[in-house]
Task: structure prediction
Amino acid sequence: NKTSAGAITGTFTGRPQGSLVRGSNGDLIISYAGGDGNDVTLTAVSKLQAWRHAHFGTIDNIGTAADTADADGDGIPNLMERACNLNPAASSTLPVTTALSGANLEYSYIRSVASVQAGDVFTVEWNDSLNPAGWSSDGVTQQVQSDDGSVQAVKALVPAGENGHRFIRL
Result:
């Protein structure tokens, strides 16, 4: 709380207005125009808001930063780009592979550890047709194959079904 008149001069450890400060208890956004207009404030943000801020300069779920937006035009919405540790400003493909393994289909994918820690849920579903009402996760098991602290490689086993093929989605 700056008690004298006038704007804040200088910065806190070189952090410019609106920058992200990583703390041991979470991420914060710094402002030098808080309170009554001339106070330093730190505002706690969620992992998702911190990701938006890092990639779009805003914490708000709007415009190109919206969860459902596709900022880079690659067909993958921002929320999925975050979940799979992709760059929403560069065209990508989903990091998935599939293989037949006996009576199962293996569906392997990469997911962001930060996304998991933020509480995001990753569900692999299957369908024998593309009927919107027919998706199921029955019989699907998932196991983390590796974890480097940033990303996890996950293998899901999906029952292959009678014809040995199914549509699968994350």
